[in-house]
Amino acid sequence: MKKIAFYTLGCKVNIYDSESVWELFKENGYERVSFNEIADIYIINTCTVTNQSDSKSRKIIRQAIRKNDSAVVVVMGCYAQLSPEEVSKIDGVDIISGTKNRKEIYHLVEEILEERKQLNVVTDLTDKFDDMSVTSFENTRAFLKIQDGCNNYCSYCIIPFARGSVVSKSKERVLLEAKELIDNGYKEIVLSGIHTGKYGVDIDYSLTSLVRDLSTLPRLRRLRISSIEINEITNELLSLIKENSTIAKHLHIPLQSGSKKILNDMNRKYDTDYYKKRVSEIRSFIPDISITTDVIVGYPTETDELFKETLQFVKETKFSELHVFPFSKRNGTKAARLKDLSKKVKHERVRKLIETNDLLAKEYADKFLEKTLDLIVETVNCSSIGYTSNYLKVEIDEALSKNEYYKIKIIKAGYPINKAVLI
């Protein structure tokens, strides 16, 4: 039995893409092993979101080659899509694929096993969804990729060039895959994509319609949207979240900056006034909803005063959790042509926002002391850890059943984890 190992860099969509390729090999009798082990085939799913991502992708590729110089090495993903010539120069790479035509990888590997040669099968990006499916994941949350591509072209982001324009998986395929995941025991499904809120624009359907259809599936305990832009959240979607207990009371809404000028420089499609007004409206629909966000600090045009605007905006908006990233240059983007700020400045701004995050997260969790919440357990040792519908991480001091649904009560609020008991 041939052994295969995967290494995935980057986002949740890449995780899904790697798992979808593994399904092809699993169906054909391959054994999956850890990337640290000796394997017959190594598949590296690369990321290209920053220059450092490219560098790390190259490092992992070389690690695979050193582990077994007779193994077939496949490089797929965003870095391979944008820089196939660079990848081809790494001695030992056999197959260079991109972000499309992943269904062909199994057959290409079989071809290479018959006759060793380098194959570059990176193709131009198309307006067709690369339709593959995943029926099992190592963790208890199942990711379901519903769309690919992005049309936004933010000034710091290369991904539209690596993934192409927005394309959607058909309604029928999404529902079928969701049913298969539920049949395989998954209690929570997370809808994922590069630009999830644009799902359906190319197939005369919508994210709201999809969420409504999925939420009616028997035995699905929780449906979560991975990320959605502020200007794509409709009142119809909010009503659905409010009224349907299956849909997670949590929205991850990227902010990126709390400065109106920086948002404009970033080519984001909203300003701070709109964002703040819409968040207020969301909370009027669903008062206790968890709103988490992404923030990029140290954008090249971000002065001390503009950073203070972001800090103040974050405090006023009272997010339940922040994901904070220092700006990192990516060649080929508009922002890469600007003079970068020092690492010291970016590090200090990240530190201040993380401090703010810890206070805001604790403040949000405090609202739920002694309240009843639902929990799906994800890890079990001596204690059990999982997440609530509103994305509070919770620990219970007893060994429960993994991937099971419980009613719990928070007895001690904290960050990054809250203590709870069963009720």
Task: Report on this structure.
It is a single chain. By secondary structure, this protein is an alpha/beta fold. The protein folds into four domains: 3-120, Methylthiotransferase, N-terminal domain (Rossmann fold, 3-Layer(aba) Sandwich), CATH 3.40.50; 126-248, 2-Layer Sandwich (Transcription Regulator spoIIAA); 249-366, 2-Layer Sandwich (Transcription Regulator spoIIAA), CATH 3.30.750; 372-422, Beta Barrel (OB fold (Dihydrolipoamide Acetyltransferase, E2P)), CATH 2.40.50. The chain is built from 13 helices and 19 strands. The chain has helices spanning 12-27, 51-67, 78-82, 84-88, 105-114, 159-163, 171-183, 207-215, 235-243, 260-265, 272-285, 304-317, 343-366; strands at 3-8, 31-32, 41-46, 72-77, 95-96, 119-120, 141-145, 147-148, 167-168, 188-192, 222-225, 250-252, 290-297, 321-326, 372-380, 384-388, 393-396, 405-412, 418-422. The strands form five sheets. A six-stranded parallel β-sheet has the order 2-1-3-4-5-6, sandwiched between helices. Strands 15-16-17-19-18 form a five-stranded mixed barrel. It has a three-stranded parallel β-sheet with strand order 7-10-11. A hairpin with a 4-residue loop joins strand 16 (384-388) and strand 17. Helix 12 (304-317) packs parallel to helix 13. The radius of gyration is 22 Å and the shape is globular. The model has no long low-confidence stretch (mean pLDDT 97).
